[in-house]
Each structure stands twice: as structure tokens, then as C-alpha cells.
Amino acid sequence: MRDRAWRRDIEPWFVRNGLPYFVPSERALARAALRPRRTVPVMLLVAVAAVGGAVGLTWLTGQASFAPATLTFLAVLAALSYGLTALRARPILGWALRRTRASLRQLLPLVTRALPLLLLFITFLFINAEVWELSASLDGSVLWLTLVLFGGIAVLFLLVRLPEEVDRVDDDIDVALVRRAVRGTPIEGPATEMLDRRGEELSLQGYGDVPGFERWNLILVLLVTQVAQVLLLAVSVLVFFVVFGGIVMTSQVQQHWTGGTVHHLPYLDNLSVELLQVSVFLAAFSALYFTVAVLTDETYKEQFFSDVLAELERAVGVRAGYLALRADSDAGDG
């Protein structure tokens, strides 16, 4: 009965902790959703809808820039929807959102550590006439494409670097790590008993190797968590520049630097649409810089990535303990 209990309870634990691909049934459904007979019809449907929407908006507005903006928006929306449903990635996003909500109390320390270094050079861009002229001249669709470009570069960088972090973790599996990892999980009791009994003879390193979909699950967990953290920082930078610009950038200065009419709020001459556009542009640029710095600068990495790596280490340790326990149980039954 106890054997069946931990086998039954560990899979929901994996799902609750953003690791659905660690569950064989979830992994099989995701693999099936990637077959061409499933993906090709969806891609064709999205392409037809995106082209139709782009043509319609271009015809209604008379601005050709709406076409690529609409195409990218619908493509991103469709990819996210398919990932959350057919690819069974909803638990990953849900776990990341819960973790982000729980870490909001740490937002102030995060911002106070990151903002000073960012603002040392970003502020000089903010008080630069050329940056104002460029940012203020962008219409909504072009600004959206710029944000997508910055975001795409950041995600591609993460997808290149995060697998390296996963490889470092799954190369260092031992008995002590598995003992720490299984605490508070459904397999804590039987796994601890197994390690006490056979710890010295177990080859846990083989169970630490995370292949295929399970490896991509860990990468996606890191990706979503890092994106959430970067977005929090970007919003903080955006708020700072809106407040800072509202204090120091008079309507006359904004009009002179943008070379045109400033669309300010009623009774708030310093707060304008142009100020918001410049702030959004620089916040996106700051997010891209921070994304790169977290994984390349050791100081940033230690401050902002250590907690995420600790959770990754736990996930790999629980998986190794579960696989070793299952093999031990099957051998005992045999």
C-alpha cells in the first residue's frame, strides 16, 4: 500500500511544481501534439487568420505598419495558446506565476540592487534628444515590433544559455543532494530509507541525466521564471522614467526634442504620450541588458539567479530519487 501511495502521489507533485513533462502520461500527450498531423493544420489556420487580420487592419487604418505588427501578435498569441493547452505547459506557467506572486515582497531589494547599475547609463539615454526624437516618432505598431524584437533577442539568448545551466546541475547528483531534494515530497520516507540502506552502492549519477522532454521542461521553467523577473524589473524602470520625466522634462523641452507637437495629459503638461513611448523603449532596452547580464556577469548571476538554480537542483534531485526508488522497488518485487 505504501509503495502504491508514493507512486500515486509523486506525479501530482511534479505537476504542481511546474514539471509536467516528468510525468510519462503528460509527456506522451505533449509529444503527440508536436506531430505534423496536429501542428500543420493549426499553423495553416493561424496563418490564414493572421493574414486576414493584417490586411483588414491595414485597409481600415491606411497604415502598412499594422500588417507585420498584427502578424507577430497573432503568431505569438497562437503559439502561447497551443503551448498552454496541447503541449501541456499550463502547469509551468502557473507555477511560475505563483512563484512570482510569492516573490513580490522581494521586488524592492531586487530593484534596489539592479537599478543603480542600469540607471548609470540608461539615464544618459533618457536625457538624449536623439533618443526622444526616435522613440516619439514611432507609431504604436512600430513600437510594438521594436518590443517584440528586443523580447525575441532576449528569449533566444536565454534558450542558448539556459541549457548550459541545466547541464551543470544534472552533472552533480549525489546522495546528499537527493536527501535534501526529497524533503517535503511524497517520496521523502521511502527515498530516505532506500538511501540509508543502499546509498553507497547506488549510481545516482545515471539517474541525474535529464534527457528530451524532461530537459526541456527544466529549460522552460528557467525561461518563464527569468522572463517574469525581467518583466518586474522592466516595469520598475518604466515607472521610474515616467516619474523622473514628469518631474524634470518640461513640455517645452519635450516639444523641442521631439521636433513636433507633444500630446500631454490635461493639467499635467510634463506627462505626455511621447514621455511614455520613450520610457517604454528604454524599459525594453533595460530588460534586454538585464537578461544578458544575469547569465554573463557573475555578480548579477549570484544575486538574481541563485534561487532559481536552487529550485532547479531540487527538481533534478527529486527526479533522481524517484527513478532510483522505482528501480529499487521493481527489483524488490522481482
In short:
The chain contains 16 helices and 2 strands. It is mostly helical.
Task: Note down, in words, how this protein is organized.
Helices cover 81% and strands 2% of the residues. By secondary structure, the protein is mainly α. It has a domain at 104-333. Strands 1-2 form a two-stranded antiparallel ribbon. A hairpin with a 2-residue loop joins β1 (264-265) and β2. The longest helix has 37 residues, at 212-248. It is globular, with a radius of gyration of 25 Å. The two termini are 17 Å apart.
Beta-strand percent range: under 5%
Approximate helicity band: over 70%
The total of beta strands comes to 2
Q: What's the Cα radius of gyration?
A: 25 Å
Query: What is the H/E order?
Result: HHHHHHHHHHHHHEEHHH
| Oligomer description | single chain
Coarse structural class? mainly alpha
Organism: Nocardioides aestuarii
Keywords: Membrane, Transmembrane, Transmembrane helix
Transmembrane segments: 40-60, 66-87, 107-129, 141-160, 218-248, 275-295
Protein name: Integral membrane protein
Layout of SSEs?
Layout: H1 2-16, H2 24-33, H3 36-61, H4 66-85, H5 90-102, H6 107-126, H7 129-136, H8 140-170, H9 175-181, H10 188-198, H11 204-208, H12 212-248, H13 251-258, E1 264-265, E2 268-272, H14 273-296, H15 298-304, H16 306-333
Antiparallel strand pairs: 1-2
Helix pairs in contact: 1-16, 3-4, 4-8, 5-12, 6-12, 6-14, 7-13, 7-14, 8-12, 8-14, 8-16, 9-16, 12-14, 12-16, 14-15
